[in-house]
Design brief:
CATH class of the largest domain: Alpha Beta
Low-confidence stretches: none
Number of strands: 8
CATH superfamily of the largest domain: Mannitol-specific EII, Chain A
Number of helices: 9
Helix content: 40-55%
Distance between the termini: 18 Å
Strand content: 15-25%
Length: 225
């Protein structure tokens, strides 16, 4: 789960000096052990997403298991796309999001909401350009073991304390059953959101079929595991 500075530098095609700058000056979370920094992959992914820094998705593979992981399009098919979502604060909007998620009977919606809000309190999950990716700090384990991503278009722009200062109108919310799926889907989604035409489609916004087609097309450019 942890990366050395040298490993991150090599995978991200940057110098070790750049990685140290990320840690010391840009707030990349790192743990110091025996006079060297170790970076948790979950912390790295969240930090890179919030700072609009692209990290290769392959870096988030946590082991050599060959079990097939869900694609973003499959998880989105599970979670659904919703338009004109009401709300005028992050909490009210996220409450509406949670109410639309297909959750296992064992998972209390209020508990999930409070867990998402607690993660938001640690630092904004806003991606930038009016998009946020609310998610829990640790994966939520459901009985079905299926991952879901919901895409919600807000009726009103909401301040999510984004780094670029823009209010949020688009929410991608993740519910995943384990760390591997969490890292996998968050990394793939962040990769997709760096595509400018896809962002423009979201801001239009496009219809469900158009969005799903665009995602599947972009996914062809990502190595599949």
């Amino acid at each position: 789960m942890f990366l050395k500075v040298s490993e991150l530098a090599k995978s991200a095609s940057v110098s070790e000096k750049t990685v140290l700058f990320w840690i010391k000056d840009m707030g990349l979370p790192a743990h110091k052990q025996d006079d060297r920094y170790l970076i948790n992959r979950v912390d790295l992914l969240e930090w890179a997403t919030s700072h609009d820094i692209t990290i290769p998705p392959e870096l988030y593979v946590v082991n050599n298991e060959t079990n097939r992981l869900a694609t973003v399009s499959e998880a989105l098919q599970q979670g659904g796309i919703f338009y004109e979502l009401p709300g005028d604060t992050p909490e009210s909007a996220l409450r509406e999001v949670v109410s639309r998620l297909h959750l296992p009977p064992s998972l209390d919606p209020e508990f999930l909401l409070q867990t998402i809000l607690a993660r938001e309190a640690l630092g904004s999950t806003a991606f930038g350009n009016g998009i946020a990716i609310p998610h829990v700090r640790n994966p939520i384990v459901g009985q079905t073991g299926e991952s879901a991503i919901s895409l919600c278009f807000l009726k009103n722009p909401i301040d999510f304390d984004a780094v670029d200062g823009q209010p949020v109108t688009i929410l991608f919310t993740l519910v995943t059953p384990n760390v591997k799926e969490h890292l996998h889907l968050l990394a793939k989604l962040a990769f997709l959101l760096h595509d400018q035409p896809f962002q423009e489609l979201l801001h239009r916004p496009g219809g469900e079929d158009e969005i799903m087609t665009a995602i599947r097309t972009l996914e062809e450019a990502i190595p599949r595991r």
